[in-house]
Amino acid sequence: MKRVYRIIASAVLIGTLLCGGGVLSAADVYDYDGVHSSVSFKARHLDISWIHGRFNEVSGKFSLDREEPSKSTFSLTIQADSVDTANEARDKHLRQPDYFDTKQYPTIEFQSTSTKAIDGGYEVTGDFTMHGTTKQITLVLMGGKEHVFKDVKRVAFSTELSLKRSDFGFDPKAIGPIGDKALILIDCEGVRK
Question: Domain Lipid/polyisoprenoid-binding YceI-like spans what residues (predicted)?
Fold first, then answer.
């Protein structure tokens, strides 16, 4: 009988460790697919036209729990010196201290702090850090449909947000010809092998 009790106790202990340690999870983890994703932006020039650009080096990861969306997490890291507006001279200027100051602030980052499901996607709140300043923002991620292609599971989201450079400590002297507000468009495809 003692042997039976020991077996039962061991089974209970193993089950507790597995559940408590988070080994059993409904979340799927996806890596940012740089081939099928993009982070682009546009800003007003002289308030008469738009300058378009993108960041070519981006990485990230998200954990998607469809049963308990509040447990889902999202993170994104942009290498600021990968800014590309299709004009080498302008890109060089944008890396200087009066704009992104990429030597002092090499990355632009987002880390979620809360997630909730909405109709057609997720509302994700988190810390957004740019130019050394961190502010809480909320992203509305639309999408989330799964697709398996060549044995690779894929999920994609899109979002747009509007930011003011003046809120992130950019040089106010550099705000004028190029408008204060920037519209950022993120299309992210995550892959899980």
Answer: 29-191
